Amino acid sequence: MEQYATAPAGFMTGGRARNVLHQLARFEAPFLDTAGLTPHMDTTLAAARRHLFTSMARTGMAFWAWPQEIWVEVIQTAPGRTHTSGTRFWMLLLAYLFCDMLYIGASTVYGAMAEVIFGQSVVETQVNTVRTPLVEAGYAADQKQGGRLQWVTCLCMLINRNPLVETFSAQLIVTVHELLAAIGGAGQMTGGFALMRLQTSLCQLGILDEPAILDTSHQKTAYLPAVWQNDASLDPIWFAWVRAFYDQTLYGHEISRRQTCHFLLVAGRWLNTYHPEVKEPAQWDEAVAAAYVAYTCNEARRGDLSPASSKNRAYDQKTPQKLSPGGIDNRLGALRTFFSQLQRRTYTVNGKPYPRLQLTWLPQETFKTPNAILAARQPNPKDIQEDTWFKLIWAACTLTKDKLYASSRNPQYPLAYYRAACLIWVTAARRSDEIRRLSLGCVSREWALEMRDEQGNQVEPAQELCYLRVPTNKSAVKKDFVKCLLTVIYEG
């Protein structure tokens, strides 16, 4: 096996390879049987066999005796992350079939694995069984190959070792929920949403009596200063000021204060790194402020001042990117807001009241975002030519299911939603945030004697106008958006 694994690929061919592999038939036979479950080429087969034999020679153990840690390493180092055949896929199958070990990863092709093990027709039938109640309730069809509903359903099949959804249990849902939590990142979020949909379908089908896991996406977030105080990269004094700002600034929405405090913590880590002598706002001078502006505009990278617990820290460090113009403006804007509030109000920090901050420099001017960055952030709209606009109107009026799926791999809303949104956009000239704020009953028809058209002629009663009432409060996003848009379609 060491001879086969260490020999150059071009050397171990023909009769020489057959002589060696004949002595390794005990290890090669199960591998060949597994690879034979999928279409493949001889070159792909040789590369996968070399990867498997190299790992066995290195560990001194047959692959069916490998513990989970070795299997994870072998799978992660195999090429073909999302392929449905080849080295990585065959390693996944070997681990599952011979060692009862299912690798958990965000990009793992569980749908293809389930189809190989249980049969394509069986998997398709069972996935359609759980999809039907969701479509009837208004959820996206998720019919594309590799959709998240199929992905999480097939994951449940593999863990359950039975493809029939009527055998799914509450304990299985809880187990999958815990495994998804270990993935982290976007895979955890999208997989969690799909698992909630699967659970909803199982309850509708009567397979589950009640939900096994609860949707926590709408629950109020934890008290953030309690989370922030575990950050060792912050000076305690600066953190106390940020906490006082979060607790005692009553203006604006809580989300805005949270975002502002996030950027204030970034500034605190910058102080701890470059100016550790500055621990509170009164110690800032114009030179320190100018240094922070220069750093933010020229040197800062995404994630360079993030806490160690940040989920995106590893990715940002692996692929460093400069801050976008919007990111630069947000960081500087947070300090403009912070120091302006300290000048206007008194704050109590660590139980000690502080008077309004007296500065010899102007925060609004010192932390001002450079004009070049503001210009790069601003949109640069262009007039749409009339013939192009007519094409958009025609596309909105003739939107079909095929066209929708051609542009969106996994639409999240019914087709009627997208038709309504497109028609509102091309006829009422509403922005996306205004469309989101539309409420049920927002369409009304009126006619009055004084109504005139664009040429000043009186509008006849038969030409009554359709009015779209758009709420002015941007902070109150309406929940009945879909119902509203359906009203627009049926009344319009």
Can you summarize this structure?
The chain has 492 residues and is mainly alpha-helical. It has helices at 2-6, 14-23, 25-35, 42-59, 68-76, 87-99, 110-118, 120-137, 148-160, 170-183, 185-204, 224-228, 236-248, 254-274, 286-299, 313-318, 325-344, 363-366, 371-377, 386-397, 401-407, 415-428, 432-436, 481-491, and strands at 347-349, 352-354, 443-446, 465-468.
**Main sheet, how many strands, which sense, barrel?**
2 strands, antiparallel
With helices defined by DSSP (H or I, 4 residues minimum), what is the helix count? 24
In terms of DSSP E residues, the strand content is: under 5%
Compute the CA-based radius of gyration. Answer: 30 Å
Total individual domains: 4
Low-confidence stretches: 474-488
The secondary-structure class comes to mainly alpha
Helix % is 55-70%
Instruction: Kindly report how far apart the N and C termini lie.
Output: 73 Å
Tell me the series of helices and strands, N- to C-terminal. Answer: HHHHHHHHHHHHHHHHHEEHHHHHHEEH
| Average pLDDT | 83
Shape: globular
- What order do the strands of the largest sheet run in, or round the barrel if closed? 1-2
Number of strands: 4
